Structures are given as C-alpha cells and as structure tokens.
Amino acid sequence: MKKYLLFLLFFNLLYSCTKTVQRKDVKVFIDYKNQKYTLYRNGKPYTIRGASGSEHLDLLVSSGGNTIRIWDTTQVNSILKIAGEKGIAVIVGLPIPESRYMDYYNDTAKVTKQFLAIKGLVARLKNNPAVLMWCVGNELTFPYRPAYRNFYKAFNQIVDMIHQDDPDHPVTTTMTNFQRSDIFMIKMRTDVDVISFNIFGQIHSLKKDLKQFSWFWNGPFLITEWGIDGPWDGTPQTSWAAKIEPTSTKKAEQYFNRYKDDMPIENGGFLGSFTGVRNRKSRIPGSVCSTKMVIRQKQ
User: Fold this and answer.
1) Per-residue pLDDT in tens (0 to 9) along the chain, 299 residues
2) What architecture does CATH give domain 2-297?
3) Which residue intervals of 126-201 are DSSP H helices?
4) Is the pTM of this model over 0.90?
5) If you placed Cys at 89, which of 57, 132, 250, 259 could pair as Cys (CB 3.0 to 4.6 Å)?
6) Cα 191 to the chain's mean position, in Å?
C-alpha cells in the first residue's frame, strides 16, 4: 500500500506541472490567469453568490443572489424554468450511491441503468440556459483502496460522459468539510473540474486548511454549504439536555461574521459560495433571510 501511495504522489508531481483549464469556446468555463481561477458564464466573469435549495427565489434575487444548488433532479424542469425566468443559475445535483455500497457498484446492470438515466437527463437539460454546472453525487467519500475501483469506474464514466456530451458546463462533486484524503483521490483518480465543500461551522478553519494543503492541491473550489453552528457543534443545552436554538438575530450575526472573517475570498481558487440549509426536506434556502447583508457584501 505504501508503494501504491508513493506512486500516486510521484505521478501527481508530474501531473501538477500543468493546470487543467476548460476550453474557452463554451458557455461556462474556468480560466486560470495570474495564479487565480475565474468562472466565466456567457463570456463574462461570474462569481457565485448562492443559496442551497429552490424556494424563495424572489428573496434571493432581491438580496443580491444569483445561483442556487439543488441536490437531486426532483422537479428539476419546473425549478430550471422558474430560476431561468428570474435570472438565477442552477447547479444540478446528480445523486449516486455512496462509495461504501460496493454491492451496488459491483452490479453491472444497476450501474449501467444509472448511467443511462443520467446520460438521458444531461442530454435533455444541457441546453437549458439556467444550467450552470453538474454536481455528481453529494458528500461522497473517495477511498484509496483498490477494492473500490468499480466505484471510481462508475463515477468517472459519468464525469467523462458529461464532458463529452455537454462541454458547455463544468462538473463538480461535494465532500463533507475539508478532507485531505478525499481531495487527494479526487485529483488522482477523477477528472472533475471543481471541488466543492459542504462545510458549515468548519469554515473557521478553511483558510488554514487550504494554505497547509496547497503544496499538493490549489485548484478551483466552491463552498456549497456553509452557515451557522449545528446542534452537534456544542450549542448550549437546557437542564434536560434539549438544544437551545439561537435567535434569528444571533444567527444573522454569526453568518455575517463568518463570511467577513472566514470566507476565503482572496484565495486564487475561490469561485463562490452557497449559504446552507439545515432541513433539506423543506428544500428552502432558509439562510437567505438572515444573510441578506452577507450576499450583498459579496457584490
């Protein structure tokens, strides 16, 4: 295993001599110049000022937001229609099973069925002007063990298909927090264009993490979920161990201070961010109301 990892590291040192930048004759591409990555949409620089979810889009627009991210393709047609009418771009999530479900990835019939379904969806939606990117999977893990080769094979088949069938839109994937091992394997074993972080309260350490790992990776990235502390982050409790929820004013202060102090906007790989939502079932970017000042400050 040590020899395997040393080989990957050696290969990366050769590979990292050049920057992988997308073609500039497409609708959405990422340019690299003067040690900075820039996202372009329809020929113009595009900094993402986003929120996760698909509702309250008028409030998002009035707050200065321009992009939403959805986790799956449920009601994707209506979401893209409404978003397009309001001038909002969409990162479309393409859900796939986690890498640990190897019974699934070892089943050729199931993997093929998934691939063909995603291929058909991409073909149907790729010309929709509201589409900004595709996100393959959500909070996946990328193991280094060779036993997971069928997961990588299935994942890369989807990414490569999108690059071939829809060169107009980049591909990303998300991870939970900043995981060095996952970043290593994403770079070494996949061809995604952007790495995205669902980071929430851990954003306080992101600047340091990016700097410390820049010797290996300093590519383009998105912060696809960030926000206030969750109940798992040591929030106060009642005497009967019930979590005490902060007031909306305190939440807004925390959002604002975290953006002001912790958002790595000066990092050359930063392409934008999405305030997160705790309850995905509601599909509501609930952070929009309390972070109006944050989104406006991004402009």
Assistant:
1) 555 444 444 444 444 433 455 556 679 999 999 999 999 999 999 999 999 999 899 999 999 999 999 999 999 999 999 999 999 999 999 999 999 999 999 999 999 999 999 999 999 999 999 999 999 999 999 999 999 999 999 999 999 999 999 999 999 999 999 999 999 999 999 999 999 999 988 899 999 999 999 999 999 999 999 988 766 666 777 878 787 777 888 888 888 999 999 999 999 999 999 998 654 433 333 344 334 434 443 44
2) Alpha-Beta Barrel (3.20)
3) 149-165, 180-189
4) no
5) 132
6) 15
